Structure prediction request, 275 residues.
Amino acid sequence: MAKKLMVNDTEITIISVNERDYISLTDMLKAKDGEFFISSWLRNRNTLEFLGVWEQIHNPDFNYAEFDIIKSQAGLNSFRISVKELVDRTNAIGLKATAGRYGGTYAYKDIAFEFGMWISPQFKIYLIKEFDRLKEEELAQLGWDIKRNLAKINYRVHTGAVAKNLIPPELTAKQRSYVYADEADLLNMALFGITAKQWRDKNPDLSGNMRDYANVSQLVCLSNLESLNAVFINEGMPQAERLTKLNAVAINQMRILVEDDRVKRLPKSKEKPDR
Prediction:
């Protein structure tokens, strides 16, 4: 799936190849005044030297001998080379010539940024800025997806244990919901020291519930408590004893999580959890 950047009113496509982002040089070229071609950029000796160094660092299968032949011709009036020819002759991976819906010439981000300088210094700066913004958004979404999916899995484990051990089959749906809510409040008390109703009474102007406003450390701890409470339920431990044990675990885990810089760096969600 292609992604889009908007740089100085120019829409630029990004595609993923082998888990690497490649930025469309064809789209970027639209921002350059006058009639220019990517092949003109490739004719420049400085461009070729940069590409050669990049491939040397990132590509163990790069054909240095063939590349040296190409580079030796740079500067000659007769010298012309296309991206496809360069890739075919040297086995380069930093540039891609593609066909189809998102056809055109693409470059790995380092090379695309260098090409951006050929457009203009201003364009390069804005390109880097917009690319970094996109990566931050993707990281935030990834972090949220991980937390959300972990919470869903442990939530199912928790409710499964409640259904199996604490809900008699003769209960009505409404009665069963009370049991689930009671166990959810057990976790709320263990971690937050307050029930859902008490939180709503204290925060009448806020929508959702207290878990919607939990920080990253609290969400991680809550997920752990759900899994642990399921184990305690399956072992037949009384609720009062479970609350004491879960509260002790929550205190200990929160102390560790709050002090852990890696947890602090986890991206914060801009959404609310779906339960």
Notes: The first strand starts at residue 3 and ends at 7. The first helix runs from residue 25 to 29.
